[in-house]
Amino acid sequence: MPYFICTNCGTQFAESSEPLPQCTICAEEREFIAWDGQSWTTADELARTHRNVVSQEGSGLIGIGMEPTFAIGQRALLVRRPEGNVLWDCIPLLDESLAQLIEGIGGLSAIAISHPHYYASMVDWAERFDCPVLLHEADRKWVMRPSPAIEFWEGDTRKMGADLTLIRCGGHFAGGTVLHWSSGADGRGVLLSGDIIYVAQDRQWVSFMYSFPNRIPLSADKVEQIVSQVEPYQFERIHGAWWDKTVSTDAKAAVHRSARRYIQHLRD
Q: CA-to-CA distance for 223 and 193, rounded, in angstroms?
C-alpha cells in the first residue's frame, strides 16, 4: 500500500489503501486546506515530476531542495562533519541521484527537524540512510507516519556530538527547535532555524509567528522565550528554511533587535 503525501504541506502519512479525506496537518489552524481542495501524491509520483537540487550554502553546509517547488517549498540543510553528517529539516523527495551523492560523502548519522511542517518524508530518508530522526517529545502527536527510526527527546537541549546542539524554543509549535552549530562560520557559530526564527525578506531582521499563512502572531512572552533559549549560544549567521533566507553577519544582534521591534509593535 502507498504512503500518501499531502500536496499542500508535503507531509507523508502512514501506509494506507486510501488517503484521508483531509490532511491532519493542513486542517489545523497553522496551515490551511488548499483552495482547490485536498489532493495527494506519492514518492514514486513525485520522482516522475520533480527532482532534487543541491547548492553549497557555506563551508560544510549543503542545501537540498526540490525543483519545481513543491508544497511549502522549504529546503533541507546537510551539515558535513567528521563525526557524521546531519540533515536538518526534511523535504518530501529523495531521488536516487541525491541518495548516491549523500552516500558518497559519508551518508547521514542523524536527521533532526525543527517542527511538524517539515517532517515531510523523514521516514523514507531515515530508512535509506539507516539513521535516527530526532524530534521533540512535545510534537509527538503530529507524527503522521510512525517509525522505530524516530527518537523523541525531552527537555530544552539535546547534544549531537561536540559542536551541534538542538534547542527547544517553542513558539510556532510547542516542540519548535533550532540547531546550533558552534563550528559553523569558521567557529563563529551558525543557527539553523527553520522558521521557528524566521529570516525576514530583507535578511537583516527576523520574525516570529504562530501561523505564517494565516497571519497569527506569537505573544510577547513566547517571543521572549525564544530569545532566552538561544541567548547562551554564539552565532554569526542564521540559515532559515528557504533558499537564500540567511542573515549573514551579526545574526545574534539581529535576533535581539527584531524581538524588541516585534514586542514594541504588539504593545503600541
A: 14
